[in-house]
Design brief:
Blueprint lengths: L7 H10 L1 H4 L4 H12 L10 E4 L5 H10 L3 E5 L2 H10 L5 E4 L12 E7 L8 H11 E12 L5 H8 L13 H9 L5 E13 L2 H11 L15 H11 L8 E13 L5
Parallel strand pairs: 1-2, 1-4, 2-3, 4-5
Antiparallel strand pairs: 5-7, 6-7
Helix pairs in contact: 1-5, 7-10
Length: 264
């Protein structure tokens, strides 16, 4: 996220509530996470692996299948961890943890993997310092995160309705690159993917965001329920973006791999 205040308890509670519905609507999340996993070298062999922000454990299971090793699943949302435990893999461990204060020994793991989780950290630089500390020399972190431009259509439509913050703010790419460059890793690589989803009606997008637990978590969001008049105004404003395929929702996803130096 940006440096705008984010309430970690609100994030944890929102994703905990979404645990049972998340996988039903997480097609984009599976796609971008699979793209991240595919960016790891085919020859890579690692044994001590962390899925940071594991959620329902989808990529915990994918990492377990690829590397044939137990995977440590960490998440700030207890509800997600409870659900993940029921799905397996049973060789893995599940721990409630904050990415900005990892409960792991220094130089203890070879690979940290994190898909669409670190954008919920108020201080990404601190999360990367913790990742650097936990990685063995020569280890790497592969993570992806949403950047500015994500859900821009929804943001613009709300701007036509009122002045409240209705859409999660995401970090500008230049700011992200500055953080990566100063994170202390030996080298890093960042590519940005653009994904555009389409919906017949706006309600399809808003219901999906709620089912994912990824609806508005920013400070400055309005309290209480959104009135019918504002929803009608939002729907009308969003219709201006309609394409032949439906109402678009754009996601900008930065795919990142950072390597820890052998002498770090």
């Amino acid at each position: 996220m940006t440096d705008t205040a984010i309430d970690k308890q609100a994030v944890a509670a929102s994703f905990s509530r979404a645990a049972a519905t998340y996988d039903q609507v997480a097609e984009l999340q599976r796609s971008v996470g699979s793209n991240l996993l595919a960016r790891l070298p085919e020859h890579l062999q690692v044994e001590r692996i962390v899925d940071l922000g594991c959620g329902t454990g989808y990529f915990t299971r994918a990492l377990n299948a690829r590397f044939r090793q137990p995977v440590l699943g960490l998440d700030i949302a207890e509800g997600m961890l409870r659900y993940a435990r029921t799905q397996g893999p049973h060789s893995s461990q599940w721990i409630a943890a904050d990415a900005e204060a990892l409960p792991l020994r220094s130089s203890s793991h070879q690979l940290l993997f994190s898909s669409l989780a670190l954008q919920w950290c108020p201080d990404l630089a601190q999360a990367l310092r913790e990742s650097l500390r936990v990685l063995e020399p020569g280890g790497r972190i592969a993570f992806n995160t949403l950047v500015e431009g994500t859900l821009q259509e929804l943001r613009d439509a709300w701007q036509a309705v009122d002045g409240y913050v209705h859409v999660n703010r995401f970090m500008p790419l230049a700011q992200l690159q500055q953080i990566l460059a100063g994170a202390g890793f030996a080298n890093w690589h960042c590519d940005v993917e653009t994904h555009v989803l389409h919906y017949p009606q706006l309600s399809g997008l808003t219901h999906e965001l709620k089912a994912l637990g990824a609806h508005n978590l920013n400070s400055g969001r309005p309290g209480g329920l959104t009135g019918r008049a504002r929803l009608r105004a939002l729907t009308a404003a969003y219709e201006a973006f309609r394409e032949p395929a439906g109402l678009p929702a754009t996601y900008k996803v930065a795919q990142i791999i950072l390597h820890k130096g052998l002498t770090a």
